[in-house]
Amino acid sequence: MLIHAQACMHAGDVLIPFEYDPGEIKPTDIEISISHCGICHSDLHLMENDWGTNSYPLVPGHEIVGVVTATGAEVAGINKGMRVGVGWQRGSCGDCSHCVAGEENVCTRTEATCIGSFGGFAEAIRCHHRFVFPIPDVISSELAAPLLCAGVTVFSPLARAGIASGMKVGVLGIGGLGHLALQFAKAMGADVTAISSSKDKEEEARKLGADHFINSSNGMQMKRASRSFHFLISTVSSGLEWTHFLSQVRPGGDMCLVGVPKEPLVIPIGTLIGGQKSISGSSIGGTKSMQAMLKFAAKHDVRPQVECLPMDQANLGITKLKNNSARYRIVLLNF
């Protein structure tokens, strides 16, 4: 069989039609007919080879929803006809302590869905059954797709931090990741503050769950928030004056980075020592986090805001992502 896809042939190129033969299905694999695939900022990083990790041709896409069309001989529990999803990760060693604990995202032999393999801007995909997740019935496919990367990326660190009622959480950057972080943090019971340089996002941020809003270009508002947050999650992909935002974290608190700026992080060590603060990073989530996130999102009605485009308009979606005109996630459709 041939799988038809949209591929980038060289770094910085636009997407063009592409096809490939996946070969015989492996005993541990599941084949999925893709109905929906979200566009993530990581796809743009990959297309431009910002991380120097990928080869070409490159088929992006790792927020995948579709229907199972075939299963390998060793697959159990997932059957043909089931609606399922795949996120950033498609494989790992399966044997290390991290994999055994359901934390496959930090396995040293992790395999990404669209690095070294062809991703979800396509009509079908195959991957290891451990990284294929049934989608709750109450979540529609176009809304489920962004949860499989953006959703788990912000849910995982919030859950690990034990966010609960009475805790103060700041969400820096109200975009594809941030608009979901607001909803998750609010559903966990936190007092939530949205932080953005775009004043026009205040009304929408409050509708998404923010109790407060800080315009990060307003020095007085920033000063009033000094030493206030138990947990500050940064979803931005641009370099900032990080000491300004670390100053908003209370003693013993944490600033967690999930966005990926190109610039190095520069922080005076005394800023951390003086307040016994920490800076952490978080990458997607393992299988346990993914399952917990989908269950939590279904129960608490956490849903992304999406704009849908046909798969053959993937370049238009990438352009919208580049110029920040997406509010907040773009999902490609195969029908």
Give me the strand/helix succession. Answer: EEEHEEEHEEEHEHEHEHEHEHEHEHE
Uncertain segments of ≥5 residues (pLDDT<50)? none
Strand content: 25-35%
Count the beta strands.
Answer: 17
Rg result: 20 Å
The biggest sheet amounts to:
7 strands, mixed
Give the proportion of residues in helices: 25-40%
Output the number of helix runs: 10
Structural class by secondary-structure content: alpha/beta
Shape: globular
Distance between the termini: 20 Å
Look at the structure and give the mean pLDDT.
Answer: 96
Summary, kept brief:
By secondary structure, the protein is an alpha/beta fold.
Topology:
Elements: E1 3-8, E2 15-20, E3 29-39, H1 41-47, E4 64-71, E5 83-86, E6 89-91, H2 97-100, E7 111-112, E8 124-128, E9 133-134, H3 141-160, E10 168-172, H4 178-187, E11 191-196, H5 202-207, E12 212-215, H6 219-224, E13 229-234, H7 242-246, E14 249-257, H8 269-275, E15 278-281, H9 287-300, E16 306-310, H10 314-322, E17 329-333
Parallel strand pairs: 10-11, 10-13, 11-12, 13-14, 14-15, 16-17
Antiparallel strand pairs: 1-2, 3-4, 3-8, 3-17, 4-5, 5-9, 6-7
Describe the protein's architecture and organization.
- The chain is of the alpha/beta class and 335 residues long.
- 26% of the residues lie in helices and 27% in strands.
- It has helices spanning 41-47, 97-100, 141-160, 178-187, 202-207, 219-224, 242-246, 269-275, 287-300, 314-322, and strands spanning 3-8, 15-20, 29-39, 64-71, 83-86, 89-91, 111-112, 124-128, 133-134, 168-172, 191-196, 212-215, 229-234, 249-257, 278-281, 306-310, 329-333.
- Helix 3 crosses helix 4 and helix 3 packs across helix 9.
